[in-house]
Amino acid sequence: MSRLRIKRIAGAVCAVIILTAGAAPFLWAGTDRVIPGVRINGTPAGGMSREELETLMHEKNEELKTDVLAVKSADGVIDEAWKFSDFSVHYKDDEIDKALKAGRDGNIAKIWYDRWHALVMGDAVHWMASYDDGALGNKVKALASEYGKPPVNAEPSFHGDGSVTFSGGRPYLKFDEKALLADAGRILSNGTSGEADVSVLDEKKPDLTEKEAKEVNVVLGWYTTEFGIDGSRDKNIEIAAKSIKGVYVKPGESFSYNQATGARSKENGYQEAPVIINGKLEPGIGGGVCQVSTTLFNAALLSGLEITQRANHYSPIHYAPIGRDATVAEGIIDFAFHNDLKHGVYLYSDYTPGSVTIYILGNREDKPSYVDISTDKNDVIPNKTKTKIDPSQKENKKTDEGHDGRHVVVTQNVKWADGRTYHDTFYSDYDPVDTVITYKSESDRKADEDKAKSEGNDKTE
């Protein structure tokens, strides 16, 4: 065979190979099927028909229901998992056309290249998921609203052995809502679980940090006082109790009751209720707040805290032992204590209609091993009887009963397991209230005296 013939045969073979190679991508891909080498969201889909793609889409939509959008801030304060199903994440039928069009767009040269590239190297077609942007927007707004409120301390849980654990709590956070929406939307559209970053713009932490909460693990002391049901007074007690609930006092810091409770005003919710003024009950805004300060005083005594400001009422009160009350008056009389313990203390109040309990929580190392609150003196200060004339009164005689006063001394003795001790003394002087007898006229007074003398002589006889 001549060389010329051999060259012609070789040329023909090369031409066949070239023609075959050029035509192969067209021969192997029908017009109604995905071209070979294509993967849809990681799944091989070459040669699939529209019906087969619909089945694949159904399977992937089912998978989307179990995917999760993680929403986190850098410091870990916000750490949530939102289900894709909450936002109706799904692939639409339009995405099927995207797979079928792969390798079919452009001029013949581009189509040839795309098909050979898919056949040899593989080609990725990514279906984009659709979602309910209104539901996502509401979720982001709800998160912003939750963390946009003033910071809240963790709530304590009380256990039978006197121990305490904390859970929950929330800081104030302001974050970039638009950025979170965009990041979350990108992940949902991508159709795979992912983490959206919360970009914090402003933050205010609770008084009680996570580290401090771990150190508050036991009840140092608690006290309960009771009261009759009275709408206005009850409301004032509830407001005052809530105002000190969750206050954390660090070691070396002081607590002021008036500062914690704020102004006793109608604007702050306080109502008019009876208050003791000069030994008598008179209406006043905030009546009842002294019951909370008295309850706190007794809890502080039992916790071994140093009381720095305390004053007794004008007269003894019924809801606490004599000498163990603590009156307050806005801007005039305060109740305060200093935390000289090794760790911080946390105030917790529990109000129910008819009673209020205040717990002082702290570290087990600061729990007293011995506490004694004793009354060392309870001396009577006699009252007097006075008379006066008031022609304007209707009765011939009217009596306003008074009562004796008291001089009371209460002592606080505390010991700790490590050898620490603390002692304090509290003096209470309750002024006597005179009995006042008012006559309409002098003759009424004289007649009453004569009658008393006569009755006295009869008794003597």
Give your account of this protein's structure.
With 461 residues, the chain is an alpha+beta fold. It has a domain at 212-455. The chain contains 11 helices and 25 strands. The protein has helices at residues 3-27, 50-64, 94-101, 108-120, 133-147, 177-190, 210-215, 231-244, 257-261, 289-303, 442-460, and strands at 38-40, 43-44, 68-73, 79-83, 123-125, 155-158, 164-167, 172-175, 194-198, 200-204, 218-226, 248-249, 254-256, 272-277, 280-285, 306-309, 336-338, 345-352, 355-362, 370-381, 385-389, 397-400, 405-415, 421-430, 435-439. It has a 4-stranded antiparallel β-sheet with strand order 11-19-18-12. Strands 2-1-5 form a 3-stranded mixed β-sheet. A 3-stranded mixed β-sheet has the order 4-3-9, covered by helices on one side. Strand 18 and strand 19 form a beta hairpin. Helix 1 packs across helix 4 (108-120), helix 5 packs across helix 6 and helix 8 packs across helix 10. The radius of gyration is 42 Å and the shape is elongated. The termini are far apart. 30% of the residues are buried. Mean pLDDT is 86; it is low at 9-21 and 23-27.
Largest sheet: 4 strands, antiparallel
Assign an overall shape: elongated
- Number of helices in the DSSP assignment: 11
Q: What is the strand tally? A: 25
End-to-end Cα distance, whole Å, is: 173 Å
Structural class by SSE content: alpha+beta
Mean pLDDT: 86
Gyration radius, rounded: 42 Å
Low-pLDDT ranges: 9-21, 23-27
What strand line-up does the widest sheet have?
Answer: 11-19-18-12
Which band does the percent of strand residues land in?
A: 25-35%
Helix residue percentage: 25-40%
